[in-house]
Amino acid sequence: MKLNKIYSSILLSTLPLTPALAAGLDRSGQSIAAFLQPGNYAEAGISVLDPKVQSNQLKVNDMAEDYYFPSAAIKVQATEHISIGLLYDQPFGAESLYPSNNLVFGANGEATQVEVETHNLSALIGYQPTENWNFYAGPVYQTVQGTVSLRGLAYGGASKLGSYDINLKEDEAYGWLAGFAYQIPEIALKTAITYRSEIKHELDTTETFGFGAIQRPNALTEVVTPQSVNIDFQTGVAANTLAFANIRWAHWDQFAVTPKFLNAASGNNLIDYSDDQISATVGVGHKFTSKWSGSASVGWDSGAGNPVTTLGPVEGFWSVGLGGQYSPAENYFIQAGVKYFWLGDATARTGTTDVGEFEDNYALGYGLKIGYRF
Question: CATH code for 5-90+117-139+172-202+223-373?
Fold first, then answer.
């Protein structure tokens, strides 16, 4: 069952090459698999998600926008016992746009929409006292920014919050991560547990009401991206075959975005979640030839509570994924993959009022990654 190191380490990375559509604002899953590769290693990838989120009850054909996000990583084995790495991803985000001709979510030719963008840069240093153990930690640099427009009867119409806009200017802040990994190369066994801290942001905020007629600038809005724990596991199960699993917990149940003037006008949060996220993926990978390998996986996500915000009206998902890897030479590879998501039905809510049901939703995810060992 023994697998050569380059095969066993790279095959595991077929797991995250397609994007997640998880609870809250979760996107990338915050994997550190690249840092756990043996030797010197670099990779770059891009993921694309094409969701369809609809409500027949509210006559909304699709409110979820397509989006893509890149990722990159480099890891250097500086000495026999010390490794360093740098990981980039976009861990959290949202991109939604309702039809402007829908009176529930549109007014004056404008539509309810949201765009939230984050960037993460994680610097790691690892200590390997033996071949089997790896202890690692490091700082995390993160930026967050967002814009939201509320339109239509779902928010009380133009006389209330149905003509509200908010601009959350980009803010940078720092957190940290730490974890350990254990491996037995002879049986391709590798497991890792990684903790990431919450990161607190104070974003300069401008709020406007009445389609921009009333402006409320110079306020600060607190946004705390959640702490999380990732557990990754793989082991050889037969000749040229690996089984793998990932479990992720993210602390969303206390997450809330509470702009000063929106809260004063309505007593509500702009965005909040009521439950923590738990997600899991299990699958198998197989090497068919010296150059070709593939993987298949099944995933589940709990969601972050129901009812949910109108800015992301789904509750969790089930998914299936397929991935393929081509290795023209032993020191580099190209991966591609696809995932299909059955998105959970959800009740959309504004404040304490249920607006309507979103059902029969789905998404397609695509991914491409290039890895190189040097």
Answer: 2.40.160.60
